[in-house]
Structure formats: C-alpha cells, structure tokens
C-alpha cells in the first residue's frame, strides 16, 4: 500500500511537473514567437505553396485555449485567386480562424495532423468561368514532398490529415459561368468530420442554411429557406469517387433521403453525378408543409393519404453539359379537412412525372397523368403532356374538366377574411398546340374544344386593391368537320369588371365575339374575329393609358407568319363613340369608321396602312387648355405617316383646312424628326390662343386674372419654344389673323418650322392701316425668352398708325404720331423678346427708311414755335409737307435719324438727330431754301414734346442735298455711305 501511495505520488508529481514544464514552454513560445514575428513568416510560407495569395492581419500561437493541443489563431484573413483567373475578386475573407494540430507528428514524422479548423463569419466567393476553370484552384501540385533547403520557409510534408472542419455563419456565393446561374447562401453553417485509411477518406457533413437563392438576374430570385444536409460520404483516392452512402436533405423540416456517387474529373473540368433523392415521409401532411402559408392555411389541418416524390440526377455537369433530372410525384387517396370548418377535400389523386435535359441533348418531357380533386365546392379533373418543353417547338396537349363554386369554398374553408368570393365556374376543355406555331400565329394545328361558363362571379380583396366581377362569361370552342373552317368559337361577356391594384382597371357592359379559323391553304390558316362592344372601359395604372368605347363593331382577320412572309392583320371598325388617351392627353371620336391593314415588319413591329373617317373628333392635351375639334374628316395612314385631304381643324376661335402629309408621327413621342408639307387655309386664326397652347399658358387662368381689368385674355401674348424635331412647311391662305391687338387680313405666304425656328417667308397681308410684305424668323430657347429677326415693308401705311402695327416704334420713333397721311415704311431689325413677346429695347438693333409724299404735320406747341421761327406762310392747324425721306438706325438705347430732305411751305429743310428710349431727343434742322437768302440752322432738344428748347445755330446739313459736286465733297462721306447702306439693306436703292 505504501509503495502504491508512493508510486501515485511520484506519478502525480511527474504529471504536475510535465504540466508545469509545458506551461513554461508555452509561456516561452508565446514570449519568443510573438504575432509580430510569426505572422510574416506564416504568410510567406502560405504564399510560396499556393498559386493565389494570402493576406493576414495577425497570427498568434495558442496553447492554453487549445490545451493539450498546439494551436494557431488567425485574425482578419483574405485569400485571393490564382492571378491567371480572369476575375480578381476575393476568394474568401474571415474575421477569425482557429487551427489546432499535433505538433509532435510534424516534428517526428513530417505529418500534418490537424484536429480542427474553425472559420468564423467568412465571406466565400466561388466562381467558375465559361471554360470550366475555378477560382479556388490555387494549390500548387508540387507543394507536397518538394524540398527546397535554400529558403527559410521550405516545408517537408509527408501527409496531411484533417479531422474536423467548421464554418460558422458564412455568406457563400457561387457564380457558374457556364449556366450563368448564381447560387447564394446566407447563414451557412457546416461541420465536416473526417477519418481515413490508406485509400479512403470518410466524411461526415452536417450543414444548415438560413436562406438559399438561385438567380440569373439579382432582382428575380428563387428563394428556399431552412435547408439542411446531414451526410456520410466516402472518398476513394484511387478512383476519385465520392460516394454518398447516407444523406438527409431537409427543406423547411421536410426530409429527403439522398444517395449516390459524385466523380470529379478535374482534367476534363467536369463532374459525373449519379444521385437519387426520395421524400422520407410519405404522409400528405408533410408534403403540404412545402406549400407556402400565403397559398394554403395549414393550421388545424387533418390529412389522409400517401405521397411519393423522387428526384434522380444522372449525367455530366461541366463544359456546357448538364445531367438528366427525372422526377416523379404521386399522391394516392389523399384527403384533408380543417377541424373548425365543415369543408373537406374527399379525394386527391396526383401522378406527375418529368424528364429534363437542360442542355437539350434530348427532348425534355413532362406529363400530368392524373390530377383529380373532389371536395366541397370543388371538382377538378385534368391531364396533359408537354413534349420537348425546353425547345421552341414544344408541343402541349391538355384536358380540363372543372366545377368550382366560389361561394361554397368561401363558406366552408378558412379563406383569408380579407377576401370575399362568390360565383361559379364550369369548364370542359381540350386543347393541343405547338408553341412556336402559336407564337407565329399559325393556327393550322391548333385544336380547342369545349366550353367555359362563369356566372355571378365576385372575388374581392379590398386591402390588396383587387377584385373581379362578372355577371356572365361564356366561351365556346368547336372542332368542325368543315376543312375550310376547322375551328370556331364564341365569347360572350356581360357586366364584367376587374381591377388590379397599381396595374389596371377594366369593365364591359356587354361584349360578343365570334371567332373562326379559315383555312386558306395547306399551310395557311387565318383567324377571323367579329365582335360587338357596348360600354367598354380599360385603364392602366402605371402609364395611365385608357380606352372608352360606347358602341363598336369590329371585323378582324389575322394572317399568320409563314416562311419568309410576316404576320398581317386586316381590320375594320364602326364605332359610335370612343375615347383613348394617356394621362391628360386624350382623343375622342363620334361615328368613326376605320379600315386598317397591319403588317409585321422584320423588327417584329406592326406597320399600319388604312383609312380613318369620322363625323367628329375631339382631342385635348395639358398644353392646349381648349379642345381641338375636327368635324367630318377622312385620314389616310401609312405606318406612322398620315395624309390629310381638306381636313378641318378647329381650336377655340381658330379654324384651318389642311391638305398634305405628315411623316413619322412617332417622332412626337421619341423626339425624332417629324416632317410635313401642308397647305393651310383658314377664315380666322387667333394667334394668341395658339401661342398660349404652345407655351402652356392656361387660358382660363388668364381670363380670371384679366377679369378686373376688362382686358381680353387674348391680348396677352406668350413666348413659346419650337421643338427642333419639327420640320413643317406650310403654304398659307388666311382670311383673318388676330394677333395681340392687331387684326390682319388676306395673309399669304410660306410658313416653316425648321430646327427650332418659325419662319414666315414672302409674307403678304393687309391691315386697316397698310399692306405688309416681308420675312420673319422667330426662335425661342425657352418659354421665357425668344429672338426675332424681321424684314418688313409697309406700303401706304397711315403715318399716325405705324406704332399700332409695330408698338416698339411708339417709343423709338414717336414723331410719327405728329403726321397725317400715308407713307412707305421699311424696317430690318432683330431683337430679344420677353416671355410676353415684348421687345427688349436694349437689344433692338436694325435699320429703317420712310418715304412720304403730301402728308400733313399736326399742330402743336413745338411746331408752332418752329413756324414762328421760320415764318411759315401756312398758319392752319395742319401744315402740308410735300416730301419726306428718312433713313434711320436703331442701336442700343437710341434711334439715329440721318439727314433727310423735308419740303414744307416755302422751305427745303434738312432734318436729322437722335431719339432716346427715355423720350429725350436732340434734333437739328438745316434751312436749305427759304425766302431769306441765307442758310441757317435750328437745334431742338428736350425730354418730351411739351418740354423743349429751340436754339438758332449754323446749318450742319447744307452740303448733303446739292447737285454741285464741289459742295457735295464737303459733306461727311461716312453719313452718305451709311444712308446708302441702309437703303441697300432694305432693297430700296432702285427707288
């Protein structure tokens, strides 16, 4: 006993001693091998032995936390792919990793025996490119057993053994460059335990995922929650075969047993897959658990019957190849009921199978052999086939017989209380078709037989903003024995309404349609539709497009695409009244007749050809504020080109009859060029209304603003911007134009809208004051400012009304109000206009000329003083002037009147000077001929015509109007040249 005690004490002492020694060694190791010292060495070793690269913030030895094993703790690590891989995205990064291993095995036998590796919260980004290369292929093939004694980081490794591998709360993304499908996992946790012998590696894999997503486009994801895998796997080193001997796959607690083999072939960059998955539980309730609760209420549900579901995956994955996927679903003698509701499903039988070849190496087929549901308010029998379903030439056939009583379903089952339903649907249908032929409108091989009847349907979900109501819907399809008309049908719709929140609204009081397929030849069948419509309304919520039809009859024929010819539609309409629009833009038609042919172009868009006739058309858009009205008119359409023949358009007080063509109407929407060559005639045009329409001024608002001033709204002009894509050319013949306060008559000439300009060319018009000829060019950069260039000739204009025709002259040339009589007045100028089309006088620049004969000057204080000064013989209230010729220049804030010859009474006078915007002036009058035999001059200056000064001075203009060449040379040549230049600019040299 004593010996035993001594032995135990010695043993305890030795153990304690060893522990203390190990602790001392650990303390020494931690003191000597600090993170600052070992981190760069470990990073160097790793980067020498992989084709990628590694970055690590710190590595520290752990002994106490991993005792009795030797360990490492790695913080903030990142692994990057091979530099030859096309994407440089990080392969993985992690906040912390722990490694514990057997140091003795490495020191003695050059074996790396790893007990455990744990990665915490890593982000793993696995990628395969279109050639089958992986970004994780980073291990150097010569890394093991390679000796390099010349480097401090060389390793001699005989064997590597990993016993346990953990991943905690990972985010994993796998991007498949071949299929273009991405797989993403959130909350990914995995534990892998391993053991091995000489030739085989045994793995136990336990994995859970909070959420797995599959997608090609990130916004369109297929999501599966709560996926788990618990598998036992054997990997044979000799034949590189991975055998799954026992595996449990769970989806939302529904378990599948999986078994099979996976054989990687790295040199071929592919994997041979042979897997079988079977639903573990064969009860219907577990299968129902797979159905989302939003579709089926699963509380307090009782079920009967068995379920069998198998999915087999066999074949090659990689290099554009995909394995075959076969599935079979069977439900036998299923039944279900709710404890608190009387409704039951008494019989549920389903048999469905499918074979899918995702690479189209063979046809993929699916077949619903049996779908039979019998229960309270529900009877449904269906079967069908889909052959070659992944190919454009897929062929489908199906049969459906159903009787659904929505009232009974709502009363006997736990339908969402926010939804109400009533009504009945009866359907008995058989159909078969080729998908490619159907898309190409080839109806030769389309077969439809049967009937669908809906009565008193009312399904409503107010909180979701959706409902559908229908008094009656009946659709009948018949397979005929007549080869010329192999298929016909009818559709009747009565008192039907539908609304889908934020999508559309639809209602129809009555709709009847007859459908028949007319066989024109062996390879061509035309679809004909004859329909009558009463009170139909359709509106989309997103783009606010709407259609309203009071009464209409429609005949339509659809010719399918065949060989190289494209589809075509011929149609004719007779409409009592219709309105169509988008937002505040709308067009309404009364008594319309249409005849169209639509041909599909190579871009699969429809070209339109035909005619439109109507008794009345009304159109409105926000900018107009008044409706546009067209009485009885016929239009010809050629795609987006329209031809008008004496089409009448009325807008407010304006009317026009238009003949010609407008091309590329689509340009009004897409901004491309819209061109037109038109002849326009009118009895009256109110230009102020039209300017308000183009500029967006609200006429009604303007009327309210003007009501207290008794001014007409139409006296308010408004600038407007001409869209640059409009290339319009008009020949005009207009009886009357109202523009501001002007009344213009007999307006003729060309009008063009080009590159944002409005141009009037060779304009001719009459006013009460004069005949006008000339050219005008208008351009606006915005609705706040415009530019105007004009060249006008006023023939025999009343002198005292010039400022009425051109209000700007009331300020720039006010002396015209002092004359009575007619003159010719020409002006060429440019100026900026404000938003009300008023001239900005500071920018007004141009030249003008006046030619008058036998006019009278009105009596006034200034003229009376001048008459006294010159001792005019005529003392009447008006004084005759035999002739007056003026050349003028507008520049900045002043008007320059160059020396002009004036014959009045017994005098010849030369007059010139300057008139300023502030109405001040400086004029000089030189006496060239008078009863007094000497020449003198008079300076007149003042702030207005009632505040002036008259001073006698020398004659400044005595050499400008003489026939003597010697005296003419004494005149200022620059002034003479300026006068000639002005007349040249105004094309008056011949005069």
UniProtKB/TrEMBL annotation:
Membrane-spanning residues: 12-33
Keyword vocabulary terms for this entry: Membrane, Transmembrane, Transmembrane helix
PANTHER family, sorted: DUF748 DOMAIN-CONTAINING PROTEIN
Name under which the protein is recorded: AsmA-like C-terminal region-containing protein
Native organism: Winogradskyella poriferorum
């Amino acid at each position: 006993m004593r010996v035993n005690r001594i032995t135990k004490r010695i043993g305890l002492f030795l153990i304690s001693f060893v522990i203390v020694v190990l602790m001392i060694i650990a303390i020494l190791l931690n003191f000597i091998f600090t993170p600052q010292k070992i981190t760069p060495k470990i990073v160097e070793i790793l980067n020498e032995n992989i084709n990628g690269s590694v970055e690590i913030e710190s590595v520290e030895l752990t002994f106490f936390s991993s005792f009795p094993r030797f360990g490492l703790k790695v913080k903030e690590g990142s692994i990057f792919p091979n530099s030859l891989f096309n994407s440089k995205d990080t392969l993985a990064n992690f906040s912390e990793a722990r490694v514990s291993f057997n140091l003795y095995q490495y020191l003695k036998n050059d074996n790396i025996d790893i007990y455990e590796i744990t990665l915490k919260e890593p982000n793993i980004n696995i990628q395969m490119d279109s050639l089958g290369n992986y970004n994780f292929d980073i291990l150097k093939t010569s890394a093991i057993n390679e000796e390099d004694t010349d480097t401090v980081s060389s390793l001699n490794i005989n064997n590597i053994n990993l016993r346990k591998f953990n991943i905690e709360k990972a985010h994993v993304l796998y991007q498949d460059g071949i299929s273009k499908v991405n797989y993403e996992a959130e909350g990914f946790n995995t534990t892998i335990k391993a053991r091995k012998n000489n030739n085989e590696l045994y793995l136990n894999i336990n994995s859970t995922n909070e959420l797995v997503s599959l997608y090609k486009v990130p916004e369109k994801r297929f999501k599966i929650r709560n996926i788990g895998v618990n598998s036992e796997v054997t990997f044979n080193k000799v034949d590189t075969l991975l055998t799954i001997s026992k595996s449990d796959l769970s989806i939302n607690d529904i378990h599948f047993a999986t078994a099979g083999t996976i054989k990687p072939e790295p040199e071929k960059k592919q994997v041979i897959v042979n897997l079988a998955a079977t639903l573990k539980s064969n009860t219907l309730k577990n299968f129902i658990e797979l159905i989302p609760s939003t579709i089926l209420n699963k509380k307090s549900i009782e079920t009967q019957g068995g379920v069998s579901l198998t999915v087999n995956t066999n074949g090659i994955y990689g290099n554009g190849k995909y394995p075959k996927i076969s599935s079979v679903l069977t439900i036998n003698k299923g039944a279900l009921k709710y404890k608190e509701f009387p409704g039951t499903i008494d019989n549920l039988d389903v048999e469905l199978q499918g074979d899918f070849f995702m690479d189209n190496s063979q046809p993929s087929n699916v077949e619903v052999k049996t779908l039979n549901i019998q229960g309270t308010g529900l009877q449904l029998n269906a079967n069908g086939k889909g052959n070659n379903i992944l190919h454009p030439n897929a062929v489908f056939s199906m049969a459906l017989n159903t009787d659904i009583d929505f009232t009974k379903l709502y009363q006997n089952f736990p339908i969402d209380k926010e939804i109400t339903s009533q009504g009945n649907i009866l359907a008995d249908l058989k159909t078969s078709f080729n998908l490619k032929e159907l898309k190409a409108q080839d109806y030769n091989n389309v077969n439809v037989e049967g009937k669908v009847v809906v009565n008193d349907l009312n399904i409503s979900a107010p909180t979701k903003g959706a409902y559908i109501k229908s008094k009656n819907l009946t659709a009948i399809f018949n397979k005929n024995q007549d080869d010329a008309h192999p298929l016909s049908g009818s559709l009747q719709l009565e008192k039907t309404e539908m609304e889908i929140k934020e999508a559309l609204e639809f209602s129809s009081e009555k709709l009847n349609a007859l459908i028949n397929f007319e066989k024109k030849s062996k390879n061509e069948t035309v679809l004909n539709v004859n329909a009558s419509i009463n009170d139909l309304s359709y509106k989309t919520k997103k783009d606010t497009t709407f259609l309203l039809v009071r009464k209409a009859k429609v005949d339509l024929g659809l010719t399918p695409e065949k060989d190289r010819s494209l589809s075509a539609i011929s149609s004719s309409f007779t409409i009592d009244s219709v309105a169509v629009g988008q937002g505040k833009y709308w067009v309404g038609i009364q008594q319309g007749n249409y005849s169209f042919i639509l041909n599909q172009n190579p871009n699969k868009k429809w070209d339109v050809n035909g005619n439109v006739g109507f008794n009345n058309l009304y159109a409105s858009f926000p900018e107009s504020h008044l409706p546009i009205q067209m009485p009885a008119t016929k239009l010809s359409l050629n795609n987006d080109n329209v031809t008008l023949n004496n089409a009448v358009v009325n807008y407010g007080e304006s009317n026009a009859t238009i003949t010609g063509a407008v091309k590329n109407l689509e340009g009004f929407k897409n901004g491309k060029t819209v061109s037109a060559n038109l002849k326009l005639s009118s009895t009256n045009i109110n230009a102020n209304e039209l300017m308000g329409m183009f500029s967006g001024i609200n006429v009604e608002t303007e009327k309210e603003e003007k009501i207290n001033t008794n001014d007409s709204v139409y006296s308010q002009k408004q600038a407007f911007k001409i869209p640059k894509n409009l290339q319009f050319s008009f020949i005009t013949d207009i009886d009357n134009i109202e523009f501001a306060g002007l009344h213009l008559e007999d307006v003729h000439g060309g009008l063009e809208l080009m590159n944002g300009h409005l141009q009037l060319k060779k304009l001719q018009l009459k006013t009460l004051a004069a005949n006008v000829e000339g050219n005008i060019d208008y351009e606006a950069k915005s609705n706040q400012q415009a530019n105007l260039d004009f060249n006008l000739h006023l023939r025999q204009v009343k002198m005292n009304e010039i400022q009425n025709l051109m209000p700007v002259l009331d300020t720039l040339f006010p002396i015209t109000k002092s004359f009575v009589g007619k003159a010719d007045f020409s002006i060429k100028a440019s100026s900026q206009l404000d938003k009300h089309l008023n001239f900005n006088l500071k920018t007004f620049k141009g030249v003008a000329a006046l030619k008058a004969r036998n006019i009278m000057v009105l009596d006034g204080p200034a003229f009376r003083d001048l008459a006294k000064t010159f001792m005019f013989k005529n003392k009447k209230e008006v004084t005759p002037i035999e002739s007056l010729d003026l050349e003028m220049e507008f520049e900045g804030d002043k008007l320059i009147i160059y020396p002009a010859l004036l014959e009045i009474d017994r005098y010849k006078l030369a007059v010139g000077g300057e008139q300023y915007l502030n109405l001040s002036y400086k004029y000089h009058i030189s006496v060239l001929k008078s009863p007094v035999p000497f020449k003198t001059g008079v300076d007149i200056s003042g702030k207005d015509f009632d505040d002036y000064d008259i001073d006698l001075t020398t004659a400044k203009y005595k050499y400008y109007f003489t026939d003597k060449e010697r005296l003419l040379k004494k005149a200022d040549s620059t002034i003479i040249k300026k006068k000639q230049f002005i007349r040249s600019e105004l094309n008056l040299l011949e005069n």
